[in-house]
Each structure stands twice: as structure tokens, then as C-alpha cells.
Amino acid sequence: MKQILRPLAILAAAALVAGACTSTPASTAESSVTSPPTTANPTTTEGSTSTMTPSTTTTEPAVVPEVTATGDLPPGLLDAVSSVLTWQQEPQAPNPDIPEGLADHLRSYPIETTDTMTVTGSTATLDDGWVAVVETGNGDILLGADEGDGWAIVGARPANGPAWYGDEPRMVMVIGSDARPGENQQTLRADSIHILTANPSTGSGTILGFPRDSYVTTPFGSMKFSSVMAGRGPQVMVDTVVNTWDLPVEGYVVTGFRGFEDLMGAVGNLPIVLPLAVPEQAEWTGFRAGRQTLTPQRTLEYSRTRKKIPGGDFTRSANQGLVMLAVLDLLQMNDVVDSPEIIDVLLDHTWTSLTPTDLIQLAATVHTLDPAAIENVVLPGKLGRAGTASVVRLTPQADAMLADLADDGVLNR
Hints:
By secondary structure, the chain is α+β, with helices and mostly antiparallel strands. Helices cover 27% and strands 26% of the residues.
């Protein structure tokens, strides 16, 4: 099993060096003029021939100094990095193939360059492409992705400014499947449902939990939200949220019980502070309140517990949010350059609709977030019935919260 975390002593040495911004003056175009030959008398007599050679002006194109990125990285990735750095050094250089938002950001926070720059970084091979994080000697971070058309730079954190890791807010649905080992994790009921939002520029975000019995309207009829995925897949759950509340959800990540436990095994034992004690369950022992460290199995048991606790599934959803915040703390002990490896481990135990570009941007976003600026909240609802089934009917306050979240990814209340 891959281990993500590095020794803390090594991590403490990974401080980034801030750099000032300079630019190289543009080259000056050279021109040459060839004068016509002169004669003593330009007027000719009959039978003579007069010839005049026109003036010729030749302008050579401006020579754009190129920045060459060198390092132990794929050649196509180094070419993409060189293209961005050349454009940063010389505005007359061709525009690199980067997102418009990133181009605007780098105009405001340009990267300091020299003619030759040695860069370091890491890459990972995914099923549908490649991802990379590149670091300059000045501490600038560049994100790379190749989705089959060649490497492109898709994000950056200049040494002298904030990060741009995609248009904000970022918004992803995280689904815990109710499927047991051997069952199809993506076409059974959902056991837990959360929307995670993040704003890299401010370090803020939200963990929003849906009660799994939330009664929702879909093209297939009204049903519990947890049942929408059954036989249809997770994209239908994303579509339900987008169409019902106009939330800009980018995609989903799905895992099951075994996948979650294995993923936590890769992350390691989880330090966490439990606000309330949890009584003993039929299948496992209870949990004391306070600071403690949970094994992967105990983390799964805590995340699944809903019986004998005040608030039932509402409290369970909030407890799952606490686990996500604790995992965030743990992941932030790594360096952003470790992000490709973390994505590789994540995809060993999950299914996702996110592209390589999305994945590397979101993985890097982890290192911009302030856990204290992330609100962990569960949508309010009231217990009711739909026929013989017990359901949760979301309140008007829940609708207002979702509308608020759609605006900027945080709850402004």
C-alpha cells in the first residue's frame, strides 16, 4: 500500500522561497536601407536608357528571448513550462496554451524568470491522462495536465502571489456507496452524500451534508436522495443537484466501505477531536469524546454510526464532515508537489467523473485551504413520510442555504 505522508522532519524543510518579479526588456528590431546608385545627370538623351533602382527596406523580425526549463521531467511538460516562462519574460512571445483565468492571474503576479531555469516536480499516470506539479527554484508552483493532446499548464501559485487553481468556487459531490464488497459501488444506494466547495484564493470552503433520506424530485419520480444512484449511477445525483438548486457541481467522487477503509489505510491513522461521545453499537464499540487517533477501521465505524446518537443521520452526516476536516489536516502535512502521488492513491479506491485537469487543480487546492475557514454543516429537514417510507423533507431554510452556496461556495450568514 502506498504511503502518502513523509516524515515531518522532511516536511518542515520544504519551505517555499518568495521571489520578486522582474522582466527582460524587449529586443530591438534591426532595419537596413539600401540606397539607389546616383548618377551625375539623371536626364537622358535620345537613344539612351535611364535606370533607377528603388529603395529597399528590410525589417528583420524581433528576436524573442526564450526561457528554457530543464529538469528530470517529461520533455513535453518541460516544453509547456518553457512556453509559459518565455511569455512571462517577454510579452511579445506567443501566448501559451493556458486557461484565460490563469493568464489574467499571471499578468497580475508574474513569475520571475532567467534564460535557463532548472525545475523539479512529480508526475502520475492516470487511466485517462497524466498530471504533474512543477516547482521553480524561486518557489513558483505550476500544475500540468495531459488529457491526450499534450501537456498544458493548468494552474499556478506564483512565489509572489496567491494561487490560481481554476475558476472559483470549486464544487464536487462526494458519495459514499452503500454497496458491500463484491457489489457494484456505483449503482447501489448512496450511504452518505456531501458537497465540498473550495476557494483557493481565500482558503475558504464548505462541507455540506445531505441527510441521506432527503426527499427529492427527479425525472424518475420523487424518492429518497440515497435511492437516486441505485441502478442509475452517480452522475444522476449530480444532475439532480444541478437541475434542482442550480449548483455548479463539477463532478463526483464515489467510494464504498472497503474502498474508504483502504483509502484511510493509505493515509494512515487519523488524529481527530470528537466533540461528543458515541455509545456502543451492535457491531462495534463506542467512541469517547476528545482528542484521539482512529485506525482506518475505527474511522469507518465512526463515519457509519447513526443509531443511539442524538440527531441520528443528521449527526452522522456532521460527523462525516469532521472526518473530512481531519483528513484535510493530515494531507496538509504533505507538500503540494506530492499531489500527483495522492491522486494516484485516491483513484485506487474511488471512481470519479473529474478530468486530470480537475484532479490536479483540486489536489493542489488542498494546500490553500484554512480548516478554520471551512464550515461543516448539514442541511436542515423534518422527518416525514412518503407513503409507507420514512423520509426527510428539506426545509425552506435548506433551499436558501443551497442558493447561497451556489454564489461563492460559502454560506454568508
